[in-house]
Every structure is written in structure tokens, then in C-alpha cells.
Amino acid sequence: MDNFKLYKGKLTIALSGELDHATAPPLRNEIDILLNKESYGQVIFDMSDLRFMDSTGVGLILGRYKLLKNKNKLLLIKSPQDAVDKVLRVSGIYSIIPRI
Amino acid sequence: MNEVRNMDSITITLKAMPVNESFARSLIAAYASRENPTINVISDIKTAISEAVTNAIIHGYNGDQEQDIYIKASIKEKVLRVSVSDRGTGIPNIIEAMNDFYTTRPSEERSGLGFTIMGSFMDTLEVNSNLGEGTTITMTKKLA
Ligand SMILES: Nc1ncnc2c1ncn2[C@@H]1O[C@H](COP(=O)(O)OP(=O)(O)OP(=O)(O)O)[C@@H](O)[C@H]1O
Ligand SMILES: [Mg+2]
């Protein structure tokens, strides 16, 4: 994760590089620290700089979705590249997490 | 024998380390690129290889990084054929394991989509597994 910004209750977290089983653990940790620390109404995963993601990434996103759902917060996915978008589509994620 | 020897193929053995997931998918993508496939085809191959190698590491070997993963790839008539093998636990029930959302590791935020992705990103997917002996995933993809 390179950066995040909080604006008018929207917490945008930018994902970058490659998200797989090797890179997921530290990323998950960083995201969860942010989610616990900041106050926000909704969270946006900005995926425009994410080049690669596999099912491990789907697990990470669904895990954060569940966390946020328990807090009654919304999760959104923004601007995935084609390869990542295909993984998200095949996984059926868009039926619960809207893409903007 | 001659036919086998003349076939365009590569074989590699990798330790079951997470860092080898990106190495394996990049390597097979580089190998496939000799047929000038589209970016979408390369992306599909990378994702499928990543799934198979990750499964070998996590499920096959339960995270034991000293174990070996064997990858074979060949190209014949513009079709890539790639297999990923482990000599790990094996899969008790292959049909069940291949179901969408079936996972034996829900607590690790796994969602049981690896086989779903391999099956829909590649042209063919074959799973051979024997309990206590290991698992071989074989996939093909038309490159051009
Ligand atoms: N190489 C393997 N050795 C032993 N068991 C395996 C192997 N590959 C898959 N499995 C079994 O098949 C199940 C389904 O695999 P699949 O990749 O579809 O899902 P997952 O790995 O559990 O979750 P995800 O891939 O979505 O992170 C696994 O949970 C595991 O029980
Ligand atoms: Mg898997």
C-alpha cells in the first residue's frame, strides 16, 4: 500500500504492485491498522495502480468487507485494471462490493 | 522418444516459498510470449499459475518451504501446456475441492476460488491427486 486519503468521510486506500499470497500479510496488517485508527463512513480501495491480483487478494478484500459490514460501513472498489477486474468478476465480488 | 525430445519444453524445480509465486508466473509468461500472445492471454496464464503454485505451497506442503514444486511447460502448435506438481498431502476429494467457494482454510481468509479461476482463465484444467503422494495440475491455453 502506498497511500491513503481521508476526505469528507471517505477513506481511500490505494493498492499498488502485485497482490498475492507473498505480499498479502503486511498489506492486510497495514489496512487493518488504518481501518481501526481513522474515522470514516465508507472505504474505497483504489486499484488503479494494482498490476496483479489472484484469489488471495479476493480473500483479503472479502475479509475487509466483512469487517466493515460489522461496523455498518460501506466498501467500494475503484478503477481496477483489466486483469484484476477479470479476477473480481469471476469471483462474483461485484454482487456485494460495488465498483465505481 | 524423438517426438518428446524435439518438443519445445521447459522444466523447473522451485522451493515452496511464497516469493516463488511471482517468479513462477513471470517465468511461464515469459516462456509463452514467444508466440506473441495478447496481453489478456498473458494475464490469464499468470493468474492461473499463481493459483496453482500458491495451492501447492499452502495446501500441498502446509507452508514447509524446504519442499519442491515442479513446473513443466511446453508449446505445441501454439498451445501452451503447463503442469504444476507437488509431492505433498494430496486432495481427498477432487470434485468437492474444485467446487466454487470450497476451501479447507476459511480461517485464513481463503475463499475457495483458486480452481474456479484456473478453470475459467485457461482453456483446459485437469487435476490429478493421490492422498499422501501429491497433486498435479495440468492446464492448457491457446496462445495465438
Ligand atoms: N496442491 C494441493 N494440495 C492439497 N490440497 C489442495 C491443493 N490444491 C487445492 N487443494 C484443496 O482444494 C481446496 C480448494 O482450492 P482452491 O484454490 O479452489 O481454494 P483455496 O486455495 O482454499 O482458496 P483461494 O484459492 O480462493 O485462496 C483447498 O482449500 C484445498 O483443500
Ligand atoms: Mg487456492
Largest sheet of chain B: 5 strands, antiparallel
Identify the quaternary structure here. Answer: heterodimer
Distance between the termini of chain B: 27 Å
Instruction: Choose one word for the global shape of chain B.
Output: globular
Helices and strands of chain B, in N-to-C order? Answer: HEHHEEHHEE
Assign a percent range to the helix content of chain B: 25-40%
Order of helices and strands of chain A: EEHEHEH
Helix content of chain A: 40-55%
Measured distance between first and last alpha carbons of chain A: 19 Å
Low-confidence stretches of chain A: none
Query: How is the biggest beta sheet of chain A arranged?
Result: 4 strands, mixed
The general outline of chain A is globular
The portion of residues forming beta strands of chain A comes to 25-35%
Averaged pLDDT of chain B: 95
Rg measurement of chain B, Å: 15 Å
How much strand content do the residues of chain B show? 25-35%
H/I helix tally of chain B: 5
Write the layout of secondary structure elements.
The complex is a heterodimer of chains A (100) and B (144).
Chain A: E1 3-7, E2 10-19, H1 24-37, E3 42-53, H2 55-70, E4 74-78, H3 82-91
Parallel strand pairs in A: 2-3, 3-4
Antiparallel strand pairs in A: 1-2
Helix pairs in contact in A: 1-2
Chain B: H1 2-6, E1 8-15, H2 19-32, H3 39-60, E2 68-76, E3 79-86, H4 94-97, H5 114-121, E4 124-130, E5 134-142
Helix pairs in contact in B: 2-3, 3-5
The complex binds adenosine-5'-triphosphate and magnesium ion.
What do these coordinates show?
The complex is a heterodimer of chains A (100) and B (144). With 100 residues, chain A is an alpha/beta fold. Chain A has helices at 24-37, 55-70, 82-91, and strands spanning 3-7, 10-19, 42-53, 74-78. A four-stranded mixed β-sheet of chain A has the order 1-2-3-4. By secondary structure, chain B is of the alpha+beta class. Chain B has five helices and five strands. Chain B has helices at residues 2-6, 19-32, 39-60, 94-97, 114-121; strands at residues 8-15, 68-76, 79-86, 124-130, 134-142. The two termini of chain B are 27 Å apart. The A-B interface holds A 18, 20-22, 28, 52, 54-56, 58-60, 62-63, 82-83, 86-87, 90-91 and B 18-19, 21-22, 25, 39-40, 43-44, 46-47, 50-51, 54, 57-58, 108-111, 113-114, 116-117, 120-121.
